[in-house]
Amino acid sequence: MGEEREKVGILVISYGSRAAAVIDALSRSEVYKARFYVADKQRNPFNAEHAEKHVVIPDLDVGKICDFVEANKNDIDFGICCPEKPIIEGVRDALESRTGIAIICPTKRYAIEASKVSQRRLLEECCAEANPRFNVFHRAGYANVSEVKSAVWAFLDEIGDEVAVKPDKPAAGKGVGVWGDHFTSREQLFVHFASIFDSGSDVIIEEKMEGEESSFQAFCDGKRLSVLPDTRDYKRAFDADLGANTGGMGSYKDKKDWLPFMAERDREKEEKLVKRIFNRLRGNGSSEELRGMPFYVAFMHTREGAKILEINSRPGDPEIQNVLPVLKNDFVDVCFRMIEGNLSRVECEEKATVVTYAVPIDYGGYRVKFSGDKKVELSGAYELTKKNRYGDNLRIYPGSMELREDGYTYALGSRTVCTVGIGETIEEARGISLAGIRNIDGALWNRWDIGAEHHIQRSVRRMKELRATTPAAYTGKR
Ligand code: GLY
Prior knowledge:
The protein contains 14 helices and 25 strands. By secondary structure, it is of the alpha+beta class. The longest helix has 19 residues, at about 265-280. The structure holds glycine (GLY). Glycine binds next to loops.
């Protein structure tokens, strides 16, 4: 790549490995030479190395992000924000009005991730068949605990005990309690319910959806969606889907746009549902307020077809790391198109990818404390990214880790670093991802079964079993 590339200044608001993947994808542009202005949760070594200017804002406070951008506004052409907290708090609204710089993410009004209740109401209007039965328990609606308990009991009498209990706010998958996983009696269920209710949040109780999950992501310029291949996230902390829910321990993508346990028509159904949500929100025209990734939708493929678990207004982590490394389009160009409102089809190489996260050994809630050395050395993994080893088929994206004054990098509290393997098959991609993981030096652990054949075959079998019991009313409608 010659120096004749056009210079472009890009603000990246960063939380975790996802931002490193974004910076990597933007850096690979053959047309633009990206210069990064990074507002980061901590001194991420990858981001710091790539940044023209790097500032640490641990709480990603919108006002502080605005101050950073204001001070550099003559050098920044556009910005991109992936973490949900600033999006929900209106970072785009604030930055665009204070600096005039276009930001890629939805405005506060369209950050529908902010409320699970609003999502369910929206789906009721446009995609009722993808909504489970649900009820909302508002904080203000009950005089005391026994009153709300009676209301919960009455709802369970109506739909059965097999439910999910969720706070009406984003909880990174961690506030959700599910019958059979987190509680097995009504009393236990109510303990979970009360912990959310007492924390000041409304609570939503939904019918539990049995099936297999997929993650759907699409870029949006306000006029159209450009859909990306499906991925499968692994939420549980330990192999065989045991342990607590986490932010996601890894994910896989197949060569085609849908997953091995899905049929092409399942993917088509997902697209139809998401387009209906998009059409509903944009009304008759377009709404550039939806720019970015307004619909990262977690689907559950059930015996009754595709249902929606939740909608997020940002790229998934780790799911977007499955996709960005295999984008065929120039990602800077895709960003400009989202801003200019002329987004066209975004294509990916026909490759499988597997993301595996390495996390601190006290992550996931089993080991209460780890007071040992938290130093993490990634040079062994980077060694494998050389041309004579895996080359570009292995990517290493640091997340919750920081570069300190002593020149070493240290793990913090959340998911430390992910490795992305790219291959002709999921198995090949998994081998490459795990080779990267094995060569990280540090007190970390990871799941070994992300994208493993036995795990995928279990999904295929479960889906077959569920479909064998599909009620007649649903056949042909999937
Ligand atoms: N993969 C889970 C999330 O991004 O929320």
